Amino acid sequence: MRPTLGCASLALVLGMTGGALAQSGEITIWSWDVAASSLQSTIEGFNAQYPDVTVTVEDLGNQQVFDRTLAGCAAGGSGLPDIISIENGEAEIFWNQFPDCFANLRDLGYTEEMASGFPDFKRTELEVGDVAYGMPWDSGPVAMFYRRDFYENAGVDPESITTWGDFIEAGQAIAEANPGVVMGQADFNGDTEWFRMLANEQGCGYFTGEGDAIAVNQPGCVAALEAVKEMADAGILVAGNWDERIQAIRAETVASQLFGGWYEGTIRSNAPEQEGLWGVYEMPSVTEDGPRAANLGGSALSITNTSDNKEAAWAYVNYTLGTNEGQVTMLRVFGLVPSLLSALDDPYVEEGQPFWGDQAIWVDILGTLDRVVPSRGTPFFGDAQAIIQATQTQYINGGFESAQAALDDAASQIALVTGLPIAE
Amino acid sequence: MRATTRTAYGFLTPYLLIFAAFWVWPIIYSFYLSFLSTRVQPWTFNPTFNWGRLIIDPAFFNAFKNTMIILVIQVPVMIALATLLAVLLNSHLLKARGIMRFAFFAPVVVGEVAYAAVFRLMFQADFGVINKLLALVGVAPISWSSNPTAAMALIITAVTWRWVGYNAIIILSGLQSIPEDVYEAATLDKVSKTRQFFFITLPLLRPIILVCVVLSVIGTMQLFAEPFLITNRGGPGGATETLGLFLYRQGFTVLNFGYASAVAYTIAAIAIVISVINFWLGRDPK
Amino acid sequence: MRSKSQTTLLRTVGLHAVLVPLALIWLFPIWMMIVFSTQPENAIFSSNLVLLPSDQFANNFALLQADTGFLRTVFVSIVVATVYTVVSVFLTSMAGWALARYNFAGKGVVLAIILGTLTLPYFVVVIPQFIMVARDFGLGNTWFALIVPPLFNSLGVLFMRQSFSMMPGELFDAARVEGVKEWQIFLRVALPMARPTIAALCIILFLASWNNYLWPLLINNRPDMMTAPVALGSLIGLTRVSWGGIMTGAVVLTLPMLFAFVVLQRHFVAGIAAGAIK
């Protein structure tokens, strides 16, 4: 860790005596939800070093950042801001379609050495050969966030929930003991996040690790989809999109939420009055003693080629993502899990969190990171996602005999659309 | 004669220029695009790539099926309702005519986004006013956004709400062009009002209803904003994905312009075929 | 035997028994739009049934304005719809005039094309239009891109043609005899006579542009060049914006049009009914 830090501070000192202080002008960033808020939170620290750069963060929502960036790139960069937040899973769509739309960060000062401060699984999707299109931001180790009081009312000890079967039983007990409360919510309308988390836990993904074949009908994914349907059928997992889930948290009608670690800040900032009522435990597994770690989401920052202030944009990206100060600020304020390895040694990580009943949640959540099986987004993520979504809906509504049949069908559809082979 | 032609084209030129630039050229270019593989950069010429995919793509057939469901259920219901409304609104027994017409015609001026927002909020599963009203009469809450059938019903309801007045206006104008004395003669012959409707009004309205049907078919073929905004991009899981939305997704979410162009041509072809069938079925029998 | 007035009474009652409930159902969404726009967020998302307005409109609108700069997008929409309407009325009137009053080579072809495009979904051209305007011309995020490509409008031409061809030809011939130039006849004689038709057309064109969603959604991705419907649509499904705020936006977009509709109902109806003229 030390050399990286040393380098960063040296660069900082050099920068201060050299041209860096002269950075000025305005830069604009597109981002979404809590990610946008956390970028906002690092501006103060950034401006302490670069007082003449005005940073504007525009929160457009996740889907629209994606849509508008694609449209902007298709239009030769028209209307794009200086910096764009890009989800790792979707990142390769951009480099693949529009290699000229984004600046090579290597040219702006992002050295191989700095890049080596991030874990490999974050880098694969962001770098193509010698070109670095994005700098890793956060990762999303999955955790089960739960309401301590609701569990206690039903006499459920979260430690005892090790399989999804246990989770269903607990869910039924909790719903009974807490009228009007549901065990969990999944975005059955617009997403497949539960399926993806469970599949990743089981070592499966839409594509193989190399991204050159379709893997979605492999046993791990089949088990994941079966588990999701069992939970939906048992009535303990009900439909709820992003905002409906937040409403449910505020209205105290939901007992657990399964998401990437970054959801911590969403719960905390939306329901500050529920301090002390929440806790975290590891996601259950399909089988007794099965794997219990997964990753969902995690993003990067990229600089557009049309930006007329790339140096200032890079200065901001480097401060926010490349320094412990920037990364830990985002963890503190909004629960974004740093992917910068050195930031994980920050003392804040060890602290018990008052909102979470003084549980040292970051120790627990980050402890799962090295058990996560990397999963590749590939340039075809968008195509695959639409197909899996439709398949999931049909399967849950009884449109397929079995999860295997559903995912075989999905795999052949993805093969048609992408031209990739189905993995053996 | 030549001078007239020159003058005429003088008046037509600006309009025809816009037409050439923003319709003719795109239509030709689109045709060319549909033969390119635009899946990854660089684009390459591959005549069977998109068309070959289109004829076996289950996602395309899903969108086609959904569009046809709307076409077969929503359009007839709406046109029948519009005809009924037009006849009732035309009745001289009607009180508060202005307010009544306003009620049905007002949605015509409400934009897609505005009404989509309202419908999405009204039909929200947990706190939506529709489910609360249903609860008053003892109906269990319906998950409008996550149940495929309910979501489709929601889209059909929304589109009908928005467009029935529009069609009623057109039919009403047709109704008002039917001379009064036709009915007077029938009344003298003691033909009942109901029979008058079926044997005089409807046949006379046939051409105008036909126009409404064709306009609605074209509208349905490019239905986009409602499933995009109300059911969150054709959700759940594509259950309300229409051809218009499928084209948008291929064009602007996956950025596969070549495939999207092939889809666009197919949509146009289907629209034209259905319109022709309509005109043929609805042609004057004499 | 039932008297005639009894029958009429029964009919009247029956008519209203059908129409009044239907009318209430049809007004309900617009009513709820207004109700939601005046309610605080926690009232919209409470388990109580809320059917009456409250007093939070200004607060909700302030939230919306702070979040998107909504007034700017309304300004963009007003400019776009106004310029579009004026230019389009001129283009379609000129074309309609040519098709109504002159016999010229290729007239049949032009007319056939215009009629033909009526059955062509706009979706056929939207992708190449986007590629051309945004990528090839590099004109994304411009006023040009918002206003010019949608100018092609076949209904307007047919509507104007209809109006011009119903005018007495002697009038124009008399002017010609006096040596008045053709474009002056069009501007000074024909256009003023077509005023009611133009009024109806203006309303329809303005409304279409005001509510246009797909094209402005695609062609502009910069917040300061967004039209109001696009800005509003972009908020649907986001958490950070209140639904009350979104509803105030919907009200701002809708109420002026409803007001115009009440005042100008005759022209609205004429313009829409023209959709059926073939």
From TrEMBL, chain A:
PANTHER family: ARABINOSE-BINDING PROTEIN-RELATED, SUGAR BINDING SECRETED PROTEIN. It is found in: Periplasm. Its main location: periplasm. Keywords: Periplasm, Signal. Residues 1-22 form the signal peptide. This is Lactose/L-arabinose transport system substrate-binding protein. Pfam families: SBP_bac_1. Gene3D superfamilies: Periplasmic binding protein-like II (3.40.190.10). Belongs to the bacterial solute-binding protein 1 family. One of its GO terms (cellular component) is periplasmic space. It comes from Pelagibacterium luteolum.
TrEMBL record, chain B:
Signal peptide: none annotated. One of its GO terms (biological process) is transmembrane transport. It comes from the Bacteria. InterPro entries: ABC_transporter_permease, MetI-like, MetI-like_sf. Keywords: Cell membrane, Membrane, Transmembrane, Transmembrane helix, Transport. It is a multi-pass membrane protein. This is Carbohydrate ABC transporter membrane protein 1, CUT1 family (TC 3.A.1.1.-).
TrEMBL record, chain C:
Its main location: membrane. GO terms for biological process: transmembrane transport. It is found in: Cell membrane. It is a multi-pass membrane protein. The keyword Mitochondrion does not apply. GO terms for cellular component: plasma membrane. InterPro entries: MetI-like (IPR000515), MetI-like_sf (IPR035906). Residues 74-264 form the ABC transmembrane type-1 domain. Keywords: Cell membrane, Membrane, Transmembrane, Transmembrane helix, Transport. The chain crosses the membrane at residues 12-36, 74-97, 109-131, 143-164, 185-208, 241-264. Belongs to the binding-protein-dependent transport system permease family. This is Lactose/L-arabinose transport system permease protein. It comes from Pelagibacterium luteolum.
